[in-house]
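**Polypeptide and fold**
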Amino acid sequence: MTTSVPALAELSALVDNSGAHAALRDRLLTALAADRTPRSDEDRAHRVHRLLRLLAGQLPPVEELFAAPEQLAVVGACAGLVDPPLHMAVINHYLLCLGSVVALADDPAEIGAPWQALATGRTRGVFLVTEVGDASSHLGTRTTARFDPATGEFVLGTPSAGAAKFSSVGGAGVPQAAVVCARVEAGGADRGVFSFVVELTDEAGPLPGVTLSSTVEAPSLPLDYALVRFDGVRVPYRQWLRDGARIDADGGFHDPLDGPDSRLARTLSVGQGLWATLPSAVAAMARQSAVQALRFSAHRRAHGRLAPGTRVLELRNQQHALLGALAESFALTCAARYAQEVWARSRAAASAPRGNGMTFSPWTAVDRPLAVLKAVTVRGAARVTGECRHRCGLAGFLAPNGLDGYHGFADAFETAGGDSQLILLDAGRALAQEDEAGRPAGPPEPPADRCGWWPSVTRSHEARLRSALRHSVRRAPAGRSGLELWNPLLAPARELGEAYGARLVADAVTDAVAAVRDPRLRDVVEALAALYGAVSARREAGGLLAAGTLEPAAVRALPGVIDGLCDRLLPHLPLLAEALGAPPGVVDVPLGADDYATALLSRLAR
């Protein structure tokens, strides 16, 4: 297929999904690309803060930004492409800190100076929810906010070392404020977990009552992390993100929600914005990793004795790995588009999250599809970036080539943003306890080289696992409940959660392919979608065979199917690379250069 302008434009629009916000994307990419080199006179904390201020100068006012919050996906994808650690700071500042205030404050302006400083980027915002002492700390928050009726203030306290909060709050001399999740104590009773806007540091260091540990390194996602403790920090009533709750003059406490679990789900509902926009960022990183690795392999020569001088991309195993990575990055892109659609429907419905269903974590009780999409997209991105890094040999691990940074970001979000393992466990447990529609279908019919094959596989596999887990629950000895019931079933619950996520992604790919208008482009995109399915099926063959979803003959045929799909796609790599890769000049790495060695030497000579 000769690359045509209409085909390229249609595929680029499908991939980018910035739509009405394309001008914002271009403005952000230009600003970030022009400022990619760290200044010699600033440390990491000051650089991150300066870049946040740079972004704030390019973005609309906060009220306009959150009125069309799909813009936040554009911000995240741009920051992630150019500087993955910066995207973590963007998540903390915009999605979690400012997002909490916008969602939960009756009127953000009433908060006063702390809000104005956060909204303009003068103060860096963070989100403090995770406590270091226990697993699933979100379900057992120990940080307290005791209401003092004499002053009308809340007094924040950290009762033990295990209640210390953890986030990227390290570094000296940067003004920071946090949205802190704490358990409200009022009228002698526990009133549930709410959020508070709390000023942490100014240019001189921590404010009175706030203690920051020394910096803790996390090499996968390099920022300045620290533990935070509170000792008698007084927070004005107006900085309580009360979300309709109130405390009367006589001390009476009122919450419109129906219990502490519903309140916790509401407090953590800010996670919806994270889960809806994070897939766009990790999909962009995955696409760029695949495009760069393919370009590198197309120019790189091997000196093995079978065929000295052969370009690495001519080898079948390299094609399977890297074209498969490109296909998965396309699938992640489709899932990212779907995540934004789910979020838009959720905002339109404006229904409050319910607390029921919290078992391993609170996340699926907040929003099951979005939480699961977060889990499966970051896992997919970690797989893609890790495979690309491995397939580039030494070059894949060198910091100037960027793959290690992309992989570190995706890998860190296996835990960050809601632990993916716990999300999938809760999703599987909940699905097994819901009504089941119909009986599982038989094994999907070949051919596996059609883009509709994998969606039918995922639907059949999810139904089979769901039926099997329901049966296991029903045949458990009478009287078993809680951990006694579920401890032996954790593995099948996780597998069902994973199957549900795989089906969500497969359906998103189907919808995207169906929307392609250009018939020649559709042939290419269908082959890409089919390759994603065939590679996924080969990777998950053990589970698919064990459940009876696929027959052994279908699995044995997959390598030949993948060979044929690679042959269909190789002539169209220029089109795919141009549409799926970052715009020229945005990602400045040696890896994709025609002459890699010269480009690397030039970078190292700067």
The chain has a mean pLDDT of 92. DSSP finds 23 helices and twelve strands in the chain.
